[in-house]
Amino acid sequence: MRALHEGLVIPAHPLALDESRRLDEAHQRALTRYYMASGAGGVAVGVHSTQFEIRDPKHGIYEKVLRLATEEVESGKLQRPFIRVAGICGPTEQALNEAEISAGHGYEAGLLSMGGLQGWSESDILKRTEKVAEIIPVIGFYLQPSVGGKVFSFDFWRAFADIPGVVAIKMAPFNRYQTIDVARAVCYSDRRDQIALYTGNDDNIVNDLLTVYRFRVQEKIIEKRIVGGLLGHWAVWTNRAVELLEEIKRVRLQDNISPQWLSLNIEVTDSNAAFFDPAHGFAGCIPGIHEVLRRQGLLKGTWCLNPHEDLSEGQKEEIDRVYRDYPHLNDDAFVREHLSDWLHRRK
């Protein structure tokens, strides 16, 4: 919990598939090994980047991918905290079942999606959260509406922060107004010091991590930072992401922050645009991440469980461009040095 509040790089774990769109266990394990070796502080498994279709009965590999990651984390015997976060979604019964599975495999927290609940009231979603939090510590998830999320009120997040068992909130509305709502709501809660704020705003990563949120609460000034990130963007170039967060932690201690950080924020956001494909409504966001990992040898291809999910027109060329324009952001050399070990090490 201390590490979670100090700030961690938590990649959203992709799903490795072979040419037949079946789970590629060797590359799935290699990805987990890559994240541990990169210095990440955890992994989020069973989330959007792992593909929601893993829950479909015709695939039925939700529990298996959770188990594979746990096996690698346990065999890695890391001498530092490494948090396992399980993606939890669906109506209450499904969410509770996934919480039980996650806790049974040693996951320390559940990233509770509010997606797909469009007809639910805020009160209903809060009750669902309370029940899940009785099984596993909860990381809240503000998901952008363009990919299935919904807009929540300030009062919702204020009540959400008061739920015992909520340990963090991932803010990913890709919207500054809604991000501020969450930060302010947590500052208004008596549990503010028990809740870590994490960015999921892949369009504003650096700025989110540098910003102090400051609000007047009952005549007292309360400050809160976004301490780390739980990001699909950090599923690639992860070693560089770890270096970035550590440097930001040092910069936060300075009185004056150089304007160069604003420029770096744009470079990271521009790279994310190539990976996540906002030009086509994020249609290529998962294949975009896969394409970078494929180039590095961490995946065999860009296949998804949904055969219609593929790179968008021009997306490959955009990834070429950000590789060319921002060579300091990739960790290809690090991956080349260790890839053979990650792929061929016995479990």
List the helices and strands and how they pair.
Elements: H1 2-6, E1 9-11, H2 25-38, E2 42-45, H3 62-76, E3 83-88, H4 92-104, E4 109-112, H5 122-133, E5 138-143, H6 154-161, E6 166-172, H7 176-188, E7 196-199, H8 205-210, E8 212-217, E9 220-231, H9 238-251, H10 260-276, H11 285-296, H12 315-325, H13 332-344
Parallel strand pairs: 1-9, 2-3, 3-4, 4-5, 5-6, 6-7, 7-9
Antiparallel strand pairs: 8-9
How would you characterize the overall build of this protein?
This protein has 347 residues and is of the alpha/beta class. It contains 13 helices and 9 strands. Strands 1, 2, 3, 4, 5, 6, 7, 8 and 9 form a 9-stranded mixed β-sheet that branches. Helix 2 crosses helix 3 (62-76), helix 2 runs parallel beside helix 9 and helix 2 packs across helix 13. The longest helix has 17 residues, at 260-276. The two termini are 28 Å apart. 48% of the residues are buried.
Short description:
44% of the residues lie in helices and 15% in strands.
What are the salient characteristics of this protein?
single chain; 347 residues; alpha/beta; 13 helices; 9 strands; 15% strand
What is the strand tally? Answer: 9
Which of globular, elongated, flat, extended, rod-shaped describes the shape? globular
Helix residue percentage: 40-55%
**Could you report the average pLDDT, rounded to the nearest whole number?**
96
- How many helices? The count is 13
Secondary-structure element sequence? HEHEHEHEHEHEHEHEEHHHHH
Strand residues, percent: 5-15%
- The secondary structure category is alpha/beta
Main sheet attributes: strand count, strand direction, barrel closure: 9 strands, mixed
- Unreliable stretches covering 5 or more consecutive residues: none
Q: Distance between termini? A: 28 Å
Radius of gyration over C-alpha positions, nearest whole angstrom = 19 Å
